[in-house]
Write a structure and sequence with these properties.
Oligomer: single chain
Shape: globular
Bound molecules: ligand LXAUTJHC
CATH class: Alpha Beta
Strand order of the largest sheet: 1-10-9-6-2-3-5
């Protein structure tokens, strides 16, 4: 794992956006398309604000989430909603969205078709992950009902229910995350920094982010 510490979060978010854009450009030199997986939640919005304005062959970029909360896009909790509002806009409006949600009461009902849409995007060209203070990444939560499958199984996409998650989720599995050509994790604040330091000493069953740390660059700013 490489740890990059930044003097402030604003600078960090712009640097990460530049880095992701540069990795996508490099990938597009030798591939007809590049896949970019990004987190939802409260942290990545400023990265999306910068990245969407970048000049890039966005029509050859396929964007997907690392995980989704099983709620429609009308919900403030929808990660897809965040993507549409802050990443798939401006220059990046030309990118293709690979969905992780489809209308149904529970993820199991649509899992197969979502997995089929995901398969051609693998291995992920560029992966950006977030992390919760409870050391979950994507929606691989400690104490989740299908943690074992998400960490050690062969599935690409895993439905998840967890004490720390108010709604059902779908998440890319650790197998998919670990297969990415390039992995970045973005975290802010002292609490998440302490969680990261703790995760480095724990097994993924207790600290799911540990499953992806080895090959990741972690970007951290206090505030
Ligand atoms: O629920 C989620 O949580 C993590 C961390 O979110 P944050 O709000 O603490 O930045 C996020 O990476 C994940 O995509 C999201 O669904």
């Amino acid at each position: 794992m490489e740890l990059k510490e930044y003097p402030d979060a604003e600078m960090m978010m712009m640097d990460i956006a530049d880095l992701l854009a540069s990795e996508l450009r490099t990938c597009l030199v030798s591939h007809d398309h590049a896949s970019l997986a990004v987190p939802g939640g409260t942290t990545p919005g400023p990265i999306f604000d910068s990245l969407c304005a970048t000049r890039l062959d966005w029509d050859r970029v396929h964007v997907l989430l690392t995980d989704e909360r099983w709620v429609p896009e009308t919900s403030e909790r929808s990660n897809t909603r965040l993507l549409r509002q802050r990443l798939l806009t401006d220059n990046a409006a030309a990118a293709r969205l690979v969905p992780l949600y489809a209308d149904a009461p529970a993820p199991e009902a649509r899992l197969e078709e979502l997995e089929e849409a995901l398969r051609p995007e693998l291995p992920l060209s560029v992966l950006l992950l977030g992390m919760g203070a409870d050391m979950h990444t994507a929606s691989i939560f400690p104490g989740a009902d299908r943690l074992e499958e998400a960490l050690h199984g062969d599935s690409l996409l895993v439905p998840m229910r967890a004490p720390g998650a108010p709604e059902p989720r779908v998440t890319l599995s650790a197998k998919v995350l670990r297969g990415a050509m390039s992995t970045h994790i973005v975290i802010t604040g002292a609490e998440k920094r302490a969680a990261l330091d703790e995760a480095r000493k724990l097994p993924p069953e207790e600290a799911p982010v540990a499953a992806v740390l080895r090959d990741a660059t972690v970007h951290w700013a206090e505030k």
